[in-house]
Amino acid sequence: MTDDTGLLAAFVLDGQGGGRALDWQGIEGWKPEQGVLWVHLDRTAPFAREWVQARSGIDEVTAETLLESQGNRPRVQRVDDGLLIVLRGLNRVEGENADDMPAMHMWVNEHQIVTLRRRRLKAGTELAEAVEVGRGPAGPSAFIVHMAERLNDPLSPVVRDIDDAIDALQEQVLMAYEPTLRRELQAARQAAINFRRHIAPQRDALSRLQAEPVPWLQPVDRAYLREIADHTARYVEDLDAARERANVAQDELNNQLAERMNKTMYVLTVFSALLLPPSLLTGLFGINVGGMPGVEKHYAFYVVLIALPLLAAIQFIILRRLRWI
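The structure assignment produced for this chain is given below.
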């Protein structure tokens, strides 16, 4: 469900993976003995913000942290018997920037779950749909696992695509130089850097999350969270390796370009060296003063034409013997 008050979904979980959908009236009338309450909100809506601050039962400081627009870095903070959690998820909403990773803000304790997002995230919608068909989390402990999985799982193909793209570019660099490779390598390396910047703090947050000593976090869910944290750590390692391979490929590309430039400069230098004496000779014969030999001879021009390539050949032989070329 969605309305202009910012309510995206709300359920009382039944402990079996399902739940009973609620509206604002049902949320206001909820009691802890009815079951675990999950409220999913758009934190840009004024009514939703007011409910979190004044009527959700969350303390003032925690509520402000949940609603702040700049606190999107993944983290975990224990407050009394609850957990303040911020995790990022890949933006899979059609028409929006796929490289972006919006944040999901969560407050979870033994009886209540409040999740807030500023921009659209499919993870919350998918979890609400799972609850509707009875395949969602049984309680707050399992809820964290389900949400973390839905936020993290889409990262795997993205990291794999970056890795495969850099592998392909490395092969192209080794095979031949192409002017477009520099731009493609830069784009792949930038993608690896961007995703690592988002994922590395998430790895640390998930590692801390499974170790938080809250009594309602079940051992089996701690194990699942540890596994998710390990997967996230591997994503970071893969991105680090991809970035390093991109750097190596970039260095190889630069070396190829430098070698091509050196070869071009070498050829130009050789030609310049070979043409220097003939240029000097033709310049000398081009001066317009008396006493120039051959001025009165009709064959003198042809003698000069023959002498110039002979002079170049002699110079080439000398340079080869000196191993300068």
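Interim note for the steering committee: The longest helix spans residues 219-285. Residues 86 and 101 are 12 Å apart (CA to CA).
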